[in-house]
Design the sequence.
């Protein structure tokens, strides 16, 4: 990676003006041709697999970001990536819960970046589908064999990279975008989102009492750094270690986090979904109280999560139970991942046919 990063306002101001030039040029070319546009839309909705990745490589051999979509960066450590995938499999249920309770609302607090989601209306009007799509992506890229020949990580990541470019294109064409917000899905916002799926998840697991070793944290952060690179994130906003990740998180939070009407509405759509699909014995007050505990009072107030934190005795119980679970033998990791993934898919009828 590029060394010696300093996350100054000057650097991050510049990052707000940058999208993903390679993917953006690709989208402009494809969308200028109705036949190519339809072809791309069909590919984006196609079944997963290496065959589909090879197909788009053959169609667009002049776009390096496509032909090299399955090439890891030079600094990627495949052993660390495997360890990170094992860590996910061991904690998958908790991590997936944290995406809704912590990671996504954390992103919604970045008012300018969240405006993209608000303008598109997809999260507000198709909340369940869009949240499942996000979760499906995480499951696919975190599988034990996700980056092997038999895995689907590269294909899924390329789809996300191209969809981000399409979102930038449509948002700018909508006439609703204010240039003072930066470019839609810009580099600073992409960096913040990547942190919300890595650093912020680690933070949430610890708040819930999960015992996390330094090597496991490093491995989980590393696999998300690789994913960030493959989705078009500039290397100088990919932290090299946890300390630098925390510095970047602090800088983005200071610069971008503030109350906003759209951030509150996105959060309301999210919490309505979580409460609607809840099948546990937890009450709405319990779930929202846990969310407030994880996010902290400052961010919760920005998002109008107007409930008290969970009582101390409930938090202590959760932390104690999770701490004890941390010492349970992991068992067969591949099997554990498959069982948990199948259970997730069964929650959504649209995904059952892909199981």
Sequence:
């Amino acid at each position: 990676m590029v060394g010696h990063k300093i996350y100054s306002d000057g650097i991050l101001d510049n990052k707000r003006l940058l999208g993903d030039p390679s993917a953006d040029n690709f989208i402009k070319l494809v969308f200028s041709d109705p036949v190519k546009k339809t072809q791309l839309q069909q590919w984006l909705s196609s079944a997963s697999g290496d065959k589909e990745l090879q197909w788009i490589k053959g169609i667009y051999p002049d776009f390096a970001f496509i032909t090299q979509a399955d090439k890891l960066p030079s600094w990627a450590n495949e052993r660390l990536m495997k360890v990170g995938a094992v860590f996910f499999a061991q904690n998958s249920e908790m991590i997936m819960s944290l995406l809704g309770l912590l990671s996504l609302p954390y992103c919604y607090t970045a008012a300018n970046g969240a405006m993209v989601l608000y303008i598109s209306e997809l999260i507000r009007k198709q909340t369940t589908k869009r949240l499942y799509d996000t979760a499906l992506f995480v499951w696919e890229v975190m599988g034990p064999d996700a980056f092997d020949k038999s895995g689907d990580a590269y294909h899924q990541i390329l789809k996300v990279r191209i969809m981000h470019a399409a979102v930038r294109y449509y948002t700018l064409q909508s006439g609703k975008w204010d240039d003072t917000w930066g470019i839609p899905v810009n580099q600073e916002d992409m960096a913040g989102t990547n942190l919300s799926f890595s650093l912020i998840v680690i933070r949430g697991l610890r708040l819930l009492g999960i015992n996390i070793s330094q090597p496991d944290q490093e491995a989980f952060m590393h696999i998300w750094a690789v994913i960030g690179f493959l989705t078009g994130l500039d290397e100088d906003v990919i932290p090299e270690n946890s300390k630098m990740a925390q510095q970047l998180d602090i800088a983005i939070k200071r610069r971008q986090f503030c109350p906003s009407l759209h951030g509150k509405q996105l959060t309301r759509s999210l919490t309505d979904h979580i409460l609607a699909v809840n099948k546990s014995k937890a009450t709405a007050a319990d779930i929202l109280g846990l969310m407030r505990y994880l996010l902290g009072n400052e961010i919760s107030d920005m998002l109008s999560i107007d409930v008290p934190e969970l009582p101390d005795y409930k938090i202590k119980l959760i932390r104690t139970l999770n701490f004890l679970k941390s010492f349970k033998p992991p068992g067969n990791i591949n099997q554990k991942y498959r069982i948990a993934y199948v259970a997730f898919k069964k929650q959504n009828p649209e995904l059952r046919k892909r199981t």
